[in-house]
Design a protein that fits this description.
heterotrimer; A alpha/beta; B mainly alpha; C mainly alpha; B: mainly alpha; MetI-like fold; 2 domains; 3-stranded antiparallel β-sheet; 16 helices; 4% strand; C: mainly alpha; two-stranded antiparallel ribbon; 22 helices; 65% helix; globular
């Protein structure tokens, strides 16, 4: 509880963390059903709101298909269209609505103010260009510098992600050889690098233009556990030194616990729970979140077997555990039987995000009472002490 | 890279040998084998003349030997490593081999050939030397030819004897009724016996002639005619043997003279000796095309550039048209352009080259209809007198010039070669562009802020080039194959016309050399494609 | 997740999509592919055209023939003295077999015993058709071969003796029947044996008894008809491809016989009223008749040569891909040899030196174009070899034959089958090319041969000899190509994804 108060205080102070850099409000994105033209459209994101503050790591978690990657891709406006389409919502980057920008204006945002790294380091680099070419391309697109300066920056950037560590060990005494080795490395092709090294190159490429927000879409899923730790460590260091906001998309709850400041749990294209990380791990409130946590294997479990998500969410009694249940504050869940749902304000929009206690938002059924309160964009300016 | 190239080049050799072996076997598979087809091409004349002509061809191409031996001989002649005495090379580049030894007459123990006196001959050393040398070589070849023909006649006479005698000689004839001379060592003994028997028979039957018995009469006349038949066969055999012996003596003598003249050598020796008089290196000898009476290599050298020219023009054109349309089709996937090019190219792909050629020459070139293009050849008849570039002469009349003339002539052939590969290339371009458009690195590039068109050009297209290089392997051979038809239709004197002529004349050496050279060009092109691929794709290394 | 569908019936969430909500139930692989193929207009057109060609391939002898369907002999008083059926009497064994095949085969596949599935009935029919085809081809060829003068006396006796070829026909038919009974089209061995024997008996006797003299005096029909001695009922197109008249060379399409120069003497006779719908060729033969008869060559050359090349290619490719190692190395050198030289060159050489008949041409096209199938199969088998189900089959200890043909082949043959459609198109194109170059089968109507007479040596261009056969060649090649493309798009999942 102390943490919560600290964060609220911080927000009230208006000193440390004043305004979110990235605000997503009521975003909805849908797709054509490609494999079956007659089938209904797929509503990948159905009204998602979240916000990221400077130097904050917002972790977006959820199972495959819950819409977390689509949210990130919409921020970059990289949702392929067709089949994808943004139905409604706003995405504010430092006050500008990205969705209203023209393609030309977006070009300077992508890679410049917002950067993104992806899950597949093995295929995310173009195999026929050297890594130098690919980093230079990013620099020259966004910064007015000469090629020589750009090369300098590329080397600096690779330096910060630790590509040269091994090189440095080899040429400890020979500064000239080290310098030559560094620029020679720029002429290497991606296939000569391991997965972890490639992800470092990706990060270097993403960070070379000093973005304000970094969208990391499962950056460590395809990597070894040891490399995973290194990459996350690297991201944390870079965040600290550059004051950058990170939206970390993952389904690895361990990574969340280690790295996130604020967690946004998504399901079915909607936010089901939004809270500060320790709060969430200590007291998960939405039955889905609880199911998620109970399905993690751990030494502390003394049970014969783990509880699955379905076991938790399949039990209507679980949905009445929320404070305010008697007022009709029932967590939103598409699979909840009709009789267990509270009376809704409208059948068309059954969902709203409800701040159930300070700093804790839960996706709830939209009863008339909650509808009058209005669905507020969750905003939690917490940053863990490092 | 260099080691890779060397290894690949060495691997080309067995492949090319395999091709020639296959073609050789194919020619041997023809009914009656290579010999039959070549002899059929030997020419008309009386039966004796045909037999002699056949004998000559058999001798020249070694047709009586097993196919594999013939193949080995052909290989050794095209191999750059030569054994034995080196050839002489005339100023014209034509080469003269040392006169081959002449096989001794058959059955020397029966029909003793004349003893050959040692030929004493001094070739002249003045300027008449060359003329004398040529005459001697020609004489030697002519005498050999006559001798070989007379050997055939001798064997025919032997076969006649065998048929006249009947058992046991007739059983020794081979399937085609020919006689192998070395199995007839006892021919005179058997013939003598048969004649004696026939005379005896005749004598015993003539005694009964007066009996006016029809059966006996016919027996008697049969016996008499057998006597006559045997006597005729005997005369013919001895005549043939005598003729063979005299021809042999003449051939052997002229050969020795020619050999002496050859050793004196009015021309420089050809090739480079490794071990003098045993092994030397020399250029390949593809033989002489009997149907055209010219060295095969000369014919190839004339035809190959023509084929290469039309193919090397057609090849880039098809890439330059198909690839951009494929790119546009992939970027505007599902648009009218995509659909239209898809349908159009598939239709073009479905027009066989031969059909396009016939329509082009009929409707575009023939004077009955449009008459826009020439119907045949590579040049106008007056091409020799043309300036290279277009010009206007003093009277202000426009002359098209040699270059434009060639372009005008090859326009239709090139057109017919080009259109077929549009479909394959453009479809492949489209497919690999679509593949790459959804690739992860394209998303990365977009996330970097690269504009859409730059993404397509710099990232997607560059990667889509790789399969296009691989397509080379399928398209180039198809185009080379198509050029056979195109050359025939438009009377272009290239490798295709050459091979078709060679086939209609059963000219073995020409067919082999033609196929070998086409295969070599093709294999070389594939090697080139491999190198290009290595250059274009950094992931491939041939270290 | 039924509730969410009730709330928003035309929307599903991404999670539902991952779980397969909104997907239709899958059909079988081939049924699905076939359904997709039939959705394409191009493929439908292709099937239609191929069907048309097949129809004419079977019925051409009945439609286009210079033999009258029926002849009525007219007596002195104008009464009909006798009737005869020259057209039927002159049908060859192949003609009879095709007609029989259509009238028996189609009902058999559609209405045969219900205890067999449609695919089993089709399988039986295909085996029977191949068996009958082989017998009808082999028997006359072997009878002819054995009656040559240089053969052994007992062979000649069998071919030419009083039995008139029956012994040879019996031996061949039974031999082929044994092979056919061995092919596992259905499970019951006895049914297979019975069917093979029945087919052997029918096709063997047809091939000995059927008519089909090659040298026929067609003129006597016309002369007698003009003289009023007979009355003829002609086929719809009263021309045979082999019937050429030197006084009718290069008549334009739609020409009536009596209007042609040199033929005024036929004025007023039934023959004089005849029309050559597509004109005549450089030898004076009717183009339409040749076009129709050539359908048979077009259909058969594509199917047989591609069948042969697929058979060879799949076998060699499977061996290469499954065993790998030095076997692969060795066999791939052979494939490389074929790749190193343009196949058309080899085909021209082969067609130039080998006997010019249809079967030889099918054989050489098949023998020289198997490398594509071999390469596809090899690549597929190399992939499959490493897959778990194959390793499981090996671990269970299945015999090699079962692993190769029961487990791997059905999974690896798809690209070959897609490619086969294009191969058929290529074979038709090659046939036209070789025929154009004068290397085609002798004594056989062919579109390519017609095309080659369009540009005669005289330098004139006869448009109807180029346009009609050219169009037929083009449409046939196009049909198979469109079918192949539709099939490829339907089957290749990568392309299917890219198509959307």
């Amino acid at each position: 509880m102390a943490d919560i108060h600290a964060s609220l205080q911080a927000r009230a102070d208006g000193k440390v963390l004043t305004k979110p850099v990235l605000e997503v409000a009521d975003l909805a994105v849908s797709f054509d059903n490609a494999s079956n033209p007659g089938a209904p459209r797929i509503q990948a994101v159905a009204g998602v709101s979240m916000s990221v503050f400077p130097q904050q790591t917002l972790a977006v978690v959820g199972e495959s298909g819950c819409g977390k990657s689509v949210t990130a891709l919409s921020t970059m406006q990289l949702v392929p269209s067709p089949p994808g389409r943004v139905d409604r919502g706003t995405i504010l980057l430092e006050g500008t609505d990205l969705l209203s920008l023209s393609e030309q204006q977006m070009l300077s945002v992508r890679g410049g103010r917002v950067a993104m790294i992806f899950q597949e380091p093995m295929t995310s680099l173009n195999p026929v260009y050297t890594i130098g070419d690919q980093i230079l391309e990013a620099i020259l697109l966004h910064q007015k510098v000469t090629v020589e300066e750009a090369i300098e920056r590329a080397i600096d950037s690779l330096e910060t992600v630790g590509i040269y560590n091994r090189l440095k060990e080899r040429f400890k005494s020979d500064a000239m050889a080290l310098k030559r080795g560094k620029s020679e490395l720029l002429d290497e092709y991606p296939h000569r690098f391991s997965g972890g090294m490639r992800q470092r190159v990706m990060i270097a490429m993403a960070l070379v233009c000093q973005p304000t927000v970094l969208l990391a879409d499962e950056p460590t899923t395809a990597l070894d556990v040891t490399i995973q730790a290194q990459i996350l460590e690297l991201l944390r260091d870079l965040q600290r030194s550059r004051g950058m906001a990170i939206m970390l998309i993952t389904h690895n709850l361990g990574v969340v616990a280690e790295n996130a400041d604020v967690v946004c749990v998504m399901y079915g294209g909607r936010v089901v729970e939004y809270a500060q990380v320790f709060e969430l791990f200590d007291r998960p409130m939405h039955p889905y979140t609880r199911g998620l946590f109970s399905s993690i294997p751990g030494l502390q479990h003394r049970l014969r077997r783990l509880t699955t998500v379905e076991e938790v969410t399949g039990n209507p009694a679980e949905f009445r555990k929320l404070p305010g249940a008697e007022r009709g504050v029932i967590p939103w869940w598409p699979g909840l039987p009709k009789e267990a749902r509270p009376p809704l304000e409208s059948e068309r929009e059954p969902y709203c995000l409800h701040e159930i206690e300070p700093g804790r938002w839960i996706g709830c059924w939209r009863t008339p009472e909650l509808a009058t309160q209005g669905s507020r964009r969750p905003e939690l300016a917490y940053r863990r002490d490092s | 890279m260099v080691t890779y190239l060397v290894r690949r080049s060495l691997l080309m050799i067995p492949t090319l040998l395999g091709i020639t072996l296959m073609v050789f076997m194919l020619l041997a598979l023809a009914p009656g084998g290579i010999g039959a087809s070549m002899q059929a091409a030997g020419g008309q004349g009386n039966t004796t003349g045909i037999a002699q002509q056949q004998a000559y061809l058999e001798d020249r191409y070694g047709l009586s030997e097993p196919v594999i031996v013939q193949y080995a001989k052909w290989l050794s002649s095209i191999s750059p490593i030569k054994f034995g005495t080196r050839d002489l090379r005339m100023a014209s580049g034509e080469r003269v081999s040392v006169p081959r030894p002449i096989p001794a007459p058959s059955l020397p123990q029966v029909f003793a050939p004349p003893a050959m006196p040692a030929v004493v001959f001094t070739p002249s050393a003045d300027e008449s030397q060359i003329a004398e040398f040529k005459a001697l070589q020609r004489d030697a070849e002519g005498a050999r030819r006559t001798y070989v023909g007379s050997v055939r006649l001798f064997r025919d006479a032997l076969a006649d004897v065998a048929r006249a005698v009947g058992a046991p000689l007739v059983g020794r004839l081979d399937g085609k009724g020919g006689a192998k001379a070395n199995e007839f060592g006892d021919v005179l003994t058997v013939l003598d016996a048969a004649q004696a028997q026939a005379v005896k028979d005749a004598a015993s039957t003539t005694g009964a002639v007066n009996m006016a018995d029809a059966k006996n009469n016919s027996d008697a006349s049969a016996a008499t005619s057998r006597v006559e038949q045997l006597a005729r066969a005997r005369v013919k055999l001895f005549d043939a043997a005598k003729s063979m012996d005299t021809k042999w003596a003449l051939a052997e003598e002229t050969r020795q003279r020619a050999t002496i003249a050859f050793m004196a050598g009015p021309y420089p020796k050809s090739g480079f000796p490794v071990i003098p008089n045993v092994v030397s290196l020399d250029t390949s000898d593809f033989g002489v095309a009997f149907s055209k009476n010219r060295p095969v290599w000369d014919l190839i050298i004339e035809a190959l550039p023509v084929t290469l020219l039309i193919n090397l023009i057609a090849f880039p054109i098809s890439y330059f048209i198909a690839v951009p349309t494929g790119v546009i089709a992939s970027v505007r996937r599902g648009s009218w352009f995509d659909t239209l090019t898809g349908v159009l190219y598939l239709s073009l792909y479905s027009i066989p080259t031969v059909l396009a050629g016939v329509f082009a020459i009929g409707f575009l070139a023939n004077n009955q209809y449009l008459g826009l293009f020439p119907v045949s050849g590579m040049h106008d008849t007056t091409a020799d007198t043309m300036a290279f570039l277009p010009s206007t002469n003093d009277a202000g009349v426009y002359k098209c010039g040699w270059l434009l003339d060639v372009v005008w002539h090859i326009a239709l052939p090139v057109l017919c070669l080009t259109y077929g590969s549009f479909a394959i290339l453009s479809k492949q371009t489209r497919a690999s562009m679509l593949d790459n458009l959804s690739a992860d690195y394209v998303r990365t590039a977009k996330a970097k802020g690269v504009a859409r068109n730059d993404v397509v050009v710099r990232h997607v297209f560059r990667n889509s080039l790789l399969p296009l290089i691989t397509m080379f392997v399928g398209i180039f051979p198809a185009m080379l194959g198509g050029s056979v038809v195109v050359e025939r239709i438009f009377s272009v004197p290239g490798m295709g016309s050459l091979v078709l002529d060679a086939i209609s004349n059963n000219d073995r050496d020409l067919i082999l050399a033609d196929v070998l050279m086409i295969a070599a060009v093709n294999v070389f092109a594939l090697l080139l494609a491999d190198i290009l691929y290595a250059v274009a794709d950094p992931r491939v290394s041939y270290e | 997740m039924s509730d969410i569908n009730q709330e928003t019936p035309n929307m599903i969430s991404g999670i539902d999509a991952m779980r397969g909500v909104g997907q239709t139930r899958a059909k079988g692989f081939w049924a699905d592919a076939w359904g997709r193929v039939l959705k394409r207009n191009g493929a439908r057109f292709g099937l239609l055209w191929i069907g048309l060609i097949a129809f004419f391939a079977i019925f051409a002898p009945l439609i286009a023939n210079s033999h009258p369907w029926m002849i009525e002999q007219i007596g002195a008083n104008g009464e009909v003295t006798s009737r005869s059926w020259p057209l039927l009497a002159n049908l060859t064994a192949t003609d009879w077999l095709l007609l029989l095949g259509v009238f028996v085969g189609a009902p058999w596949i559609l209405l045969g015993p219900r205890s067999l599935t449609r695919s089993q009935r089709t399988g039986m029919f295909v085996v029977a058709a191949i068996q009958a085809g082989v017998i009808v081809v082999l028997v006359p060829t072997l009878i002819e071969w054995s009656s040559e003068s240089s053969r052994a006396p007992w062979l000649k006796e069998m071919a030419r003796g009083n039995n008139g070829g029956w012994p040879i026909a019996a031996v061949i038919s039974l031999g082929v029947a044994c092979v056919a009974a061995w092919i596992p089209s259905i499970d019951s061995l006895w049914t297979r044996v019975a069917s093979a024997l029945a087919v052997a008996a029918i096709s063997g006797s047809i091939s000995v008894t059927a008519g089909g003299a090659t040298l026929i005096n067609f003129e006597r029909y016309m002369d007698n008809e003009a003289a009023g001695k007979i009355r003829c009922v002609w086929a719809p197109i009263p021309w045979s491809p082999l019937y050429t008249r030197s006084d009718m060379v290069a008549a334009p399409p739609g020409a009536m016989v009596e209007e042609l120069p040199n033929l005024e003497s036929w004025k007023g006779t039934p023959f004089g009223k005849r029309i050559s719908i597509m004109g005549t060729d450089a030898l004076g033969g009717d183009v339409l008749a040749q076009m129709l008869w050539a359908c048979r060559l077009s259909i058969s050359i594509g199917l047989v040569s591609t069948g042969l090349s697929v058979l060879i290619g799949v076998t060699i490719g499977a061996i290469m891909g499954y065993f790998g190692g030095w076997i692969d190395l060795l066999l791939f050198r052979i494939v490389e040899i074929f790749m190193a030289v343009p196949v058309l060159f080899l085909l021209i050489v082969a067609a130039g030196v080998l006997p010019r008949n249809t079967y030889m041409m099918m054989a050489i096209i098949g023998m020289f174009s198997w490398t594509g199938a071999a390469r596809f199969t090899r690549a597929e088998f190399m992939k499959l070899r490493k897959q778990e189900f194959v390793q499981a089959a090996q671990a269970v200890g299945l015999p090699l034959r079962a692993i190769l043909f029961r487990h791997m082949l059905p999974n690896g043959v798809t690209p070959v089958l897609v490619d086969a459609s294009f191969s058929i198109a290529a074979a038709i194109s090659i046939e036209a090319t070789l025929s154009y170059l004068g290397l085609g089968p002798d004594g056989q109507a062919s579109w390519g041969k017609l095309l080659s007479s369009a540009t005669a040596s005289t330098g004139t261009f006869v448009w109807w000899l180029a346009v009609f056969p050219g169009l037929a060649i083009f449409l046939s090649v196009l049909s198979y190509n469109m079918l192949g493309e539709a099939l490829r798009d339907a089957i290749d999942p990568k392309l299917r994804k890219a198509a959307h």
